[in-house]
Amino acid sequence: VSLLAVSDNVRAWPGGTGSHKVAGNYSPGFLPQIAAAQQGYDQILWLFGEDRRITEAGAMNFFVVVKRDDGDGLDLITAALDGTILPGVTRASCLALAGDPEFQKETSLRLHPQEKVYTMSDLVKWSSEGKLLEALAIGTAVIVGPCNRIGYEGKDIVIPGNGLGPVGTALRKKILDIQEGRTDWQGWGVVCS
């Protein structure tokens, strides 16, 4: 998925309904989505405020994987639930898995899940320093999908690799295994016959 970062239009705002699954949260995206498609992008990366805080990608939660400065694995970062972010089940599942020592051992990944404010300036900086390793669209239908580039101020931030990286692949596989009954991960799934 390619994303066009948009700050002129607003999908959700404090005190609004951004944290709820309601039709009104999606109509603000129609016009920017058309403009993004005309520029060759698949979806919108919604930014908010003068500091251009990253919120969501289209109608999905948005995560990034960033190499840590201390060398202790990887940060898995997504926006904090501040009333503008949909608290999706897939979002919560990815955060819980990423922080689980058993999942980390099984996947040989050292992950530090974080819910925090981060901006396009952070993304540009991480990319220029070679620390931005993956960008992920997370949601019910897509489960975990890769973002390959983000258009911002006339330039593209290119995400390394061609598809899901190790973090996105591990999260997607585990969630699908749970959903499709191949594993009963800590009681998350119940096989019904």
Note the topology.
Layout: E1 2-6, H1 30-38, E2 43-48, E3 53-57, E4 60-67, E5 74-78, H2 89-99, H3 101-107, E6 111-115, H4 120-128, E7 132-139, E8 143-146, E9 149-152, E10 155-158, H5 166-179
Parallel strand pairs: 1-2, 1-9, 5-6
Antiparallel strand pairs: 2-3, 3-4, 4-5, 4-7, 7-8, 9-10
Pfam families: Aminotran_4
GO cellular component, one term: mitochondrion
Catalytic activity: L-valine + 2-oxoglutarate = 3-methyl-2-oxobutanoate + L-glutamate; L-leucine + 2-oxoglutarate = 4-methyl-2-oxopentanoate + L-glutamate; L-isoleucine + 2-oxoglutarate = (S)-3-methyl-2-oxopentanoate + L-glutamate
General description of the model:
It catalyses: L-valine + 2-oxoglutarate = 3-methyl-2-oxobutanoate + L-glutamate; L-leucine + 2-oxoglutarate = 4-methyl-2-oxopentanoate + L-glutamate; L-isoleucine + 2-oxoglutarate = (S)-3-methyl-2-oxopentanoate + L-glutamate. Belongs to the class-IV pyridoxal-phosphate-dependent aminotransferase family. The protein has helices at residues 30-38, 89-99, 101-107, 120-128, 166-179; strands at 2-6, 43-48, 53-57, 60-67, 74-78, 111-115, 132-139, 143-146, 149-152, 155-158. It has 193 residues and is an alpha/beta fold. Strands 1, 2, 3, 4, 5, 6, 7, 8, 9 and 10 form a ten-stranded mixed β-sheet that branches. The longest helix is centred in the C-terminal third of the chain and has 14 residues, at 166-179. The protein is globular. The termini are far apart.
